Structures are given as C-alpha cells and as structure tokens.
UniProtKB/TrEMBL annotation:
PANTHER family (alphabetical): HISTIDINE KINASE 1, TWO-COMPONENT HISTIDINE KINASE
Species, as recorded: Alcanivorax jadensis T9
Domain Response regulatory: 457-573
Residue span(s) of domain Histidine kinase: 224-436
Name of protein: histidine kinase
PROSITE patterns named among the record's database cross-references: HIS_KIN, RESPONSE_REGULATORY
C-alpha cells in the first residue's frame, strides 16, 4: 500500500470502520437468507432420515439460528440511526452469528453423510463451495468474520472425509483444504482492495470539502477586503477634493487624509502578511531577545491611547526576561493582541504579565473588555472575523489581526491560547521558549561607530522613474550614495566603471519584459565574483511568486514606508546582535 494511502487510512480509521460496517450491514440480511435456504435444502436429499432425532434436532437448531439472525437484522434496521454508530457491538454480534452458522455446517456431514457414496459427498462439497464462494462484500469488509465461518466448516469436512470416507479419491480429500486456502487468500485480497477504495473515496470527499471551503473563504475574503479598502479610499478621495477646493491650509483635513491613507496601508499590510504566511515564504530568524526591550515600543504606543480611554496599563515581571524567538514576528503578535485589547476595552485595565513555567515563559495579555461569546470563540482566528462590528466600520478594525497572530504563532512555534467570558474580558497566553541569559553584545569597532547611511553605497534599479526618484531622494537625505538606473545594462556599466561592489543592491522584481530580480543578482554576483546584499522591492504579492523567492533574499512589498525601508537596511547591513 503506498505511503500516502497508508497515511489516509490511519487518519480516517474511525470513518473507514463506519463505512465498512455500513457495507456489511446492508448485505448481511440477504446473506443470512441465502445461507438458510441452502442449509435447509441440503437435508432434503436425505428424507429417509426425516423422522430421526438428529434430523429433527438439526432442523430445529437451524430454524432457531435463522429466527435469531432475522430478529437481529430487523432490530438493527428498525433502530439504524441509533445502532449504526455502534460498530464494535455489531461486529461482535455478527461474529457470534457466523460461529453459530459454522457449527451447523460443520455438523452436517457427521449427521447426514455417514456411509454416503463419494458421488454424494462430492455433490455436497460442490454445493458447499458454491455457497461460500458467492461474491460478497462481507468476504472483504470483515475478513475475520468470513474466515471465522469457513475455517471450522472446511476443517470439519476434511476431518470427516479422512476418518469416515478414507476410500474417497484424493481429489475429494483435497477439495476442503484447497477451498479453505484460496478463500482465505481471496478474502484478504478483497479486504485490502476495499479498504483502499474506501480510503480513496473519503480522501476525495475531504479534498472536495477543503476546496469548497477554500473557495468560500476566498470569496468572503475578497468581498471583505474590497469593502474595507473602499471605505478609507472613499474618505481619502473626498478629503483630497476638499483640499483642492480650498486654498487655505486645512490641517484637520490633512490629518484625516493621513488617517485614511494609514488605514489603506494597514489593510494592505495585513493582506500582504497573510499572503506571505500562506506562501510559506516567511521564515523566522530566531535569536535571544530581551522581553522588555522588545515590548517597550509597543508599550510606548499603547499608553497614550489607553490614557485617552482612561484605561490602566499594567506590566509585571517583564524586566530581565529573555526568550529565544524571532523578535520582529513576536512583536507583531503582541502588538496585534494589545491592539485588540485596547479596541474592545472601555474601562478597567490592560495587563501584560510574564510568569515562569518549567523551562518556558508564559506571557499573559489580559483585558477587562467586552469578552467573546462562547459561540464565537472557535472562529476568532479566522480572517475578517470581527466581534461587535456588524457594520464593518474601518475604525473598529479589519478582522485580520488574530488570523495573523494564529499563523505567526504557528510559524514561530509559539502556542497561543485564549480564555474569555462574555462581558468580563479576554486573556491570551503565549507560551515562549525562555532563555537563561542574554548573550554579550559584539565588540565595538570603528565601522560600527560610524552612522550606517553615511557609509552606504546603493545600486538602485527600477523601471519606474517615480520610484527611483523617490528612493534616491530618501536615501540621499540620510547620507547614502545612490546610483539609480531604469535598466540592468546601464547599471552594470556604472558598476564596471566604479570597480567595486555597492553596499547593497535595491531592485524591483520585474524590470522590463526580459529582466527580473534574479537577472540582477546573477549579473552583480558574476561581475564581482561574490554575493552582494540584495533587497527586492516589489508589488507582486502572488503566493506562487513569493514561494519561488530564495530564502536568503530580503523582500519588501509596495507600498513601503520610509521607516520600514530604513529598518530593513539596518537589519540587513548592521552586524547581528542580541536585543
């Protein structure tokens, strides 16, 4: 059995058991009826014995077994909905019935074939062989039941022939044994085939269900994203029109315009993060980080907002704690959780506390907000799931924060647990890998002491003139030396004239019809016979594209804020250190 099929059988063991049971019970009634008529017909060839006690006794037992079988089948059919899940109970009952029928067939030759001729014996064996070899799902669904039935029957007939009919030809003596062997092998073969068929069908059904759910999720995702993006864009459009129609300075309108644009950027950033997570392109860069230092910028952000709502921000036991994880992803998780706490809490406090548990550090983010109803708690980590935001107001959030928390937590191996009670608040608990101490910082040197951007040389390639002008202006204002180009050929010519590699290459992914970021990286590496740090800035967020990017190449997705760009360059070019 192929490994993928074996895994499918293991994962769906209970469902396969139920399917097997259903197949067996659909046929077992007709199988019992057939066995009864064949068994009842055979003794009719020996009517001269009909007044004998063995004949009467055997028929009495046959009728009792048939009546019992019929009663059990009728009971099952009458209570199918209640009894169908009890697969193990009915498996035992059917095994019991198979053993009773086996006793009847096994006793038959000893009661009716004493002194029978080889021809009569052969006739009975043929009838027995036909009766047990009629194609049936029960042969493969439960091979233990089928084999448990035929084994004592054929062995009893073989023993009878060897003891009471020793003069029978060898072929007659071999029929019971040959039939038994072949029927056992055939039953096992049919069993394996049926299990594979059931497992493949279940896999197909599950794949269809997953595809259907993915399609529904995508439709819901796009509809919600479109709605949430249109709101701030509409507002920005109106604010821009107001500015055009009024020559006087309008600081309030400018502030509102900035807010609308920030909302657009927030949504695009969340969508980009989800896209990168789905592409599995995002890889955590784990190191030892100081917990308080990492969370301090988040605390500085949240305190003014909390004060405006008259909320108390409480932190406990953060100082001196160190963990081993990706600092940027961890901060994103905490920021989303704190943002949620701030959004849904109108009075009381937001509390962030660390506590030790064995070799792990538990970080609780607790609020006294509206809480989450039990019926929603299994859905809060889904995209665009929002509590208490029926009108989908953009000020109330996008419904993506907890989806990102869940996926980043899984990526960084940080389990996220939630406890919540409606009207009382919510607590999220992060299980973090604690680090005993912080590593010493690297030794200072002259290069580290110099401002990064004053020593930075940048090769910039983008076929959009507006992008090269804006990036050149930004980096130049920070002190960097920028060589900007709209195509690969003039960029390479400039590098040859310069004679030394730049500090960093910043390039768009697609530069004209036949050149992309890969072409740039190959050309620069070949020219200087060494890799040069490269940052790709692109607007292509297709998961398939993201999946193809090399793991060691840094990528930012448009639109890129100035502080995001400078932080990425500092991360790429500054010597790695421990926070």
């Amino acid at each position: 059995m192929p490994e993928t099929l074996r895994r499918a059988v293991t994962e769906n063991r209970e469902r396969i058991l139920q399917e097997r049971h259903n197949l067996f019970m659909e046929e077992v009634g007709s199988r019992m009826v057939l066995s009864f008529f064949i068994a009842a017909a055979l003794p009719l060839f020996f009517l001269e014995m009909r007044t004998e006690p063995p004949f009467i006794g055997w028929y009495t037992v046959l009728l009792c077994v048939a009546a019992q079988s019929l009663f059990l089948i009728r009971f099952y059919n009458a209570h199918r909905e209640h009894e169908a899940p009890k697969t193990r109970k009915w498996h035992r009952l059917n095994l019991y019935l198979a053993m009773i029928w086996a006793m009847l067939w096994s006793s038959f030759p000893y009661l009716f074939l004493q002194g029978a001729t080889p021809v009569t014996l052969l006739t009975c064996l043929v009838i027995l062989s036909v009766a047990t070899s009629i194609p049936s799902v029960s042969m493969g669904v439960y091979p233990d039941i089928f084999i448990g039935f035929i084994t004592p029957v054929y062995l009893a007939w073989l023993a009878f022939i060897l003891v009471y009919v020793p003069e029978a030809p060898g072929i007659i003596k071999m029929i019971p044994l040959i039939n038994l062997i072949f029927m056992v092998l055939f039953s096992l073969y049919i069993h394996r085939s049926q299990i594979s068929t059931i497992a493949l069908r279940i896999e197909a059904e599950q794949a269809s269900e997953r595809a259907s759910k993915a399609s529904e999720s995508k439709t819901r995702f796009l509809a919600a994203a479109s709605h949430d993006l249109r709101q701030p864009l509409q507002a920005a459009t109106l604010y821009a029109a107001m500015l055009k129609n009024n020559a006087a300075p309008q600081p309030e309108i400018v502030a509102k315009l900035d807010t609308a644009i920030a909302s657009c950027n927030e949504l695009l950033g969340h969508l980009l993060m989800l896209s990168r997570l789905q592409s599995q392109r995002l890889k955590p860069r784990k190191r030892i980080i100081n917990l308080l230092n990492t969370l301090q910028p988040i605390l500085d952000e949240v305190r003014p907002q909390a004060s405006a709502k008259q909320l108390t921000v409480i932190i406990e036991n953060l100082a001196g704690q160190h963990i081993f994880t990706d600092g940027i992803m961890f901060a994103r998780i905490v920021r989303n959780l704190v943002s949620n706490a701030l959004k849904y809490t109108e009075q009381g406090h937001i509390r962030i506390v660390a506590r030790q548990q064995d070799k792990q550090l538990l970080l609780d983010i607790e609020d006294t907000g509206i809480g989450i109803d039990d019926i929603y708690q299994s859905d809060v980590f889904e995209e665009f799931m929002q509590i208490d935001n029926d009108q989908r107001s953009i000020q109330n959030g996008l419904g993506l924060g907890l989806a990102i928390v869940s996926r980043l937590g899984a990526l960084c191996e940080i389990p996220v647990q939630m406890r919540s009670r409606k009207g009382e608040g919510t607590t999220f608990t992060l299980t973090l890998p604690a680090a005993a101490t912080c590593l010493p910082p690297p030794a200072d040197n002259v290069v580290n002491a110099l401002p990064l951007f004053e020593t930075l040389t940048v090769l910039l390639i983008d076929d959009d003139k507006r992008v090269t002008e804006a990036l050149s202006g930004l980096l130049g204002s920070l002190g960097a030396t920028v060589s900007a180009h709209h195509a690969l050929e003039p960029a390479m010519q400039a590098l040859k004239e310069r004679g030394s590699p730049p500090s960093v290459v910043i390039t768009d992914d697609q530069i004209g019809p036949h050149t992309n970021a890969g072409s740039v990286i190959e050309a620069v590496t070949a020219l200087f016979r060494q890799p040069v740090p490269t940052l790709i800035i692109t607007g292509n967020t297709n998961p398939d594209f993201i999946q193809t990017l090399p793991d060691d190449i840094d990528v930012l997705f448009k639109p890129v804020a100035a502080d995001t760009l400078t932080a990425k360059l500092e991360e790429m070019l500054a010597p790695s250190s421990v926070a």
